[in-house]
Amino acid sequence: MKLYNGGKIITGLVIFLGVFLAPFAYNMGKAAYSQPKLKMPENEKECIESKEFMRTKHMQLLNDWRDWSLRDGKWVYVNSKGKEFEMSLQKTCMKCHTNKAEFCDKCHNDAAVTPYCWDCHIQPEGLKK
Amino acid sequence: MNHTRRNFLKFMGVAAAGLCAASAGSALAVSGAGSSIKDSATAVNAKRWGMVIDTKKCGTKEAIDVLAKACHSVHNVPNIPGNQNVMWIWAAGYEQAFDQPNNYMDESVEKRQFALLCNHCTNAPCVRVCPTQATYKRPDGIVAMDYHRCIGCRYCMAGCPFGARSFNFMEPRKHLDLTTLNKEFPTRMRGVVEKCNFCVERLAYGKQPACAEASNGAVVFGDLTDANSEVRKLLREHYTIRRKPALGTEPGVYYII
Q1: Considering the entire predicted model, what is its pTM?
Q2: Chain A positions in Cβ-Cβ contact with residue B147 (cut-off 8 Å)
Q3: What does residue B69 show for φ and ψ, rounded to 5 degrees?
Q4: B212 within some domain
Q5: Domain count of chain B?
Q6: Cα dist. B87→B34, B70, B80, B166 in Å?
Q7: What is the mean pLDDT of each run of 10 residues along chain A (129 residues)?
Q8: C-alpha angle with apex B95: B89 to B100, nearest 5 degrees?
Q9: What is the DSSP letter of A7?
Q10: A97-122 burial, b for 16+ CB within 10 Å, e for fewer?
Q11: In terms of CB atoms within 10 Å, which of A9, B21, B108, B144 comes out highest?
Q12: Chain B: nearest CA to A127, how far in angstroms?
């Protein structure tokens, strides 16, 4: 087999790999990503569903809650253990998670997501001018 | 095995199918297993909510401002000076409120102010024109809004013949007293339309609408389909009119003149 223009191709590949792998080289030796430490509610140990469920699916849960309460007029959520909760971000979630900055924002900032909940909903800390 | 194009394509096809099946499987496995939803225990329900406003008892700007204050503080409605204000309930004269004012009208009616709000029409034009179904009709007759979905196109404002809808031309929080907000209800954001919601969030817990509560009995709220309800009693005993009945939207707010 003969490689036509071999020199150019190999140089190109080396440059490409160099650029492609630069971020890995840059981060070499730095501490691995660690999940942010959240300020958990003091009086309540169990959330609406399991920790794993809440961690991965809280956005779907909030979407469902919105549609069930606003559109279907059902305001009570019965969780998998039979416990009842009012479906409300401000009246249920934020009653335990009393600090948006120490809870919501930590992970959202880390994950570089900007949910627009707080454009309308009022955070438990209150609003400042 | 020969490395032929045919084998390569077969392999890729199988791999793609496998990926699709795997992601579909994980997408199906959502939802809080074993959870359910139900009505709030204290909820009050109706087939068709309606309102009767006794304009003889509540017919001045001052009296209506009391209702507006009650409503607007519960729902975090801003007060914006100028012509871009947001209003859920407001006062207006006979001519603005109803079709075809008569000549030489009774002076008390001519000078009376009427509390105007969303009529929660049976055939609501705003619901029909909303392209995102942000405005929708609930089975109990309330025309409700899901502000998450509103894209601010303002078709509903063009569609509503009663002017019951307000657009948030600017960030409403700039015109709210942030220290006295009702923390149980959200505000709105710039670029959405808003209006009276017949206090769905209060009905869900058995409370009367804020304006009815603040009116000393001048505003009565109840089920129009229930012949024994307070609203039906008032409708039987008094002559009432509705706003712009000729349009056929079937408003749910009645005025005792």
Answers
A1: 0.83
A2: 120
A3: -65, -45
A4: yes
A5: 1
A6: 42, 12, 9, 6
A7: 89 96 89 86 90 93 94 92 93 93 93 94 87
A8: 125
A9: H
A10: bebbeebbbbeeeeeeeeeebbbbbb
A11: B144
A12: 6
Query: Per the domain annotation, does B12 fall within a domain?
Result: no
Residues 8-47 of B with CB under 8 A from A: 30-41, 43
Contact, B79 vs B175, CB < 8 A? Answer: yes
**Residue B114 and residue B94 in contact, taking contact as beta carbons nearer than 8 Å:** yes
The string of pLDDT tens digits covering residues A69-90 is 999 999 999 998 999 999 999 9
Half-sphere exposure of A119 (CA within 13 A, CB side): 13
In which domain, by residue range, is B68 found?
49-256
Q: Are A36 and A107 in contact (CB under 8 A)?
A: yes
Q: Where are the domains of chain A?
A: 51-120
**CATH code of B131's domain:** 3.30.70.20
ipTM of the complex: 0.83
Ramachandran area for residue B236 (φ above 0: left; ψ -120 to 50: alpha; else beta): alpha
Of A60, A66, A70, the CB nearest to B144: A70
Which of B170, B183, B199 would you mutate first to test chain A, the one with the most A CBs within 10 A?
Answer: B183
